Amino acid sequence: xxxxxxxxxxxxxxxxxxxxxxxxxxxxxxxxxxxxxxPPSDAISLFDGxxxxxxxxxxxxxxxxxxxxxGTMEVVPGTGNIRTKLKFGDLQLHVEMxxxxxxxxxxxxxxNSGIFLMGLYEVQVLDNYNNPTYPDGTxxxxxxQYPPLVNAMRAPGEWNTYDIIWQAPRFDGYTVAIPAxxxxxxxxxxxxxxxxxxxxxxxxxxxxYSPHAPTGPIELQDHGDLVKFRxxxxxxxxxxxxx
Length: 243
Ligand code: MG
Hints:
0% of the residues lie in helices and 30% in strands. The site of magnesium ion has 8 residues, from strand 7 and strand 8.
């Protein structure tokens, strides 16, 4: 084969059936990137500013109780967490979020919400603009486990972006074989890179794993604050050589 189309006289890449530079290896699927943070062509839009049709109440039966206005969804305190009707395993998730413009409360009491992967693992949403709290509860923290590397929070009312790459845990019987792993960018700044989680999110106690399903919903937290979200999309992440 020519160098442009690949080689079949080269060694086999360990763990695969492909030669180094193998031209017969599956071509990566073509994806058209979205404009200005919008979903790429192979994403599932979970909220495009119109309605909550992709969401339901998380801890009771019934529809999601949050309100949609001017292209955003906003927590309606007391209506509870909401979650996607669809369930996901390994994923790439984009979420945009803005803190309430009326500043109320301090520490964990200001602009608190959360993004729960698989309904269990919280990436913190909090207004930490000139509002310190315990580091492992700061905006973008893996709550109770890892503080964000930096605090890249924008001012109340301004839009922040989360880009999360999530690898679900794998279980072998009752024990965790491969812990969950997450990478988080916030406003395009890396907060965590492939850190291993200690288990589902807990408050004031240590996390530890117990087996759960290989997929779960994305859940957003009602912590009583008027946090807004928009432009939420997700892509399943598959292995190499996978259509
Ligand atoms: Mg929270």
